[in-house]
Structure formats: structure tokens, C-alpha cells
């Protein structure tokens, strides 16, 4: 059973940067795809970015393309989400999720979820 733990959230001013990390325990990310999703109050869960652990293929939501970068660290078995040029509309709880197989934007296809970490961007 893979368990995911996010870290790195916090409060930042608009235009600032944050780096989120997703660590796996109870297993490894080998052969998995890892995604980041976010959910703001009163809104549906939204896809942010995803990466294939095996191929390194990445996919981004249009709203974060060019500002966010997802990457993997094989040695640490972690996936990071580097967020730059943050906007107030990026405020949300960010969660990482993992699934076997290919990358997808669809949250219901992910098998494992972390608890989430709050990101707040002030204007």
C-alpha cells in the first residue's frame, strides 16, 4: 500500500514561489504516474500537473503551464512541484496522487492520495 505525504505549502505573496514535495512510503513510485491536483473552497478538484515516473513525460494544465514545473527525484523517491509567479487564484489545497500506468488528468483514475497541503497566495 503506497502512502503519500505532501509538504512545502504555506503563505506567499502574489508573484512569489513555493516548492511542494510528494514523498511515497510503503512502496516506490516505480511504474507509476504521479499527479498534482488542487481544490479551492467551493470548487471542484482541478488537475494541475502529472509526470510518468518511468518515461518522465509531463502534462500540465493550461492555467499553470510556464509557471509550474513537475519533476521527479529518483534517489529520494519524491515528486516536486515548483510553483513560480503565483497568483491569488492559485490558492487551494494541493494534493498529490499516484496511479499505475500512463499519465492522466482524470482524478478518479488515481489510486492513492495524500492528505494535501494548503497553498495561500495573497494579493
Q: How would you describe what is shown here?
A:
The protein starts with a strand and ends with a strand. β4 (32-39) and β5 (46-52) form a beta hairpin. 0% of the residues lie in helices and 52% in strands. With 123 residues, the protein is mainly beta. Strands 2, 4, 5, 6, 9, 10 and 11 form a seven-stranded mixed β-sheet that branches.
Topology:
Elements: E1 3-7, E2 10-13, E3 18-25, E4 32-39, E5 46-52, E6 58-60, E7 68-73, E8 78-83, E9 92-100, E10 112-113, E11 117-122
Q: Regions with pLDDT < 50 over 5+ consecutive residues?
A: none
Structural class: mainly beta
Terminal CA distance: 40 Å
Mean pLDDT rating:
95
Estimate percent helicity. Answer: under 10%
User: Strand portion, in percent?
Assistant: over 45%
Largest beta-sheet characterization = 7 strands, mixed
Pattern of helices and strands: EEEEEEEEEEE
For the CA atoms, what is the radius of gyration?
A: 13 Å
What is the strand tally?
A: 11
Shape: globular
The helix count comes to: 0
Brief overview, please?
This protein is mainly beta and 123 residues long. The chain contains no helices and eleven strands. Helix content is 0%, strand content 52%.
Task: List its traits.
123 residues; mainly beta; 7-stranded mixed beta sheet; 4-stranded antiparallel beta sheet; 0% helix
Amino acid at each position: 500500500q503506497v502512502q503519500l505525504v505532501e509538504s512545502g505549502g504555506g503563505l506567499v505573496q502574489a508573484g512569489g514561489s513555493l516548492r511542494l514535495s510528494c514523498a511515497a512510503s510503503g512502496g516506490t513510485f516505480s511504474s507509476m504516474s504521479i499527479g498534482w491536483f488542487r481544490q479551492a473552497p467551493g470548487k471542484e478538484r482541478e488537475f494541475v500537473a502529472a509526470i510518468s515516473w518511468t518515461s518522465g513525460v509531463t502534462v500540465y494544465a493550461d492555467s499553470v503551464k510556464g509557471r509550474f514545473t513537475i519533476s521527479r527525484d529518483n534517489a529520494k523517491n519524491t515528486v516536486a512541484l515548483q510553483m513560480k509567479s503565483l497568483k491569488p487564484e492559485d490558492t487551494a489545497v494541493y494534493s498529490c496522487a499516484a496511479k499505475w500506468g500512463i499519465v492522466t488528468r482524470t482524478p478518479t483514475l488515481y489510486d492513492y492520495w495524500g492528505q494535501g497541503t494548503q497553498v495561500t497566495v495573497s494579493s
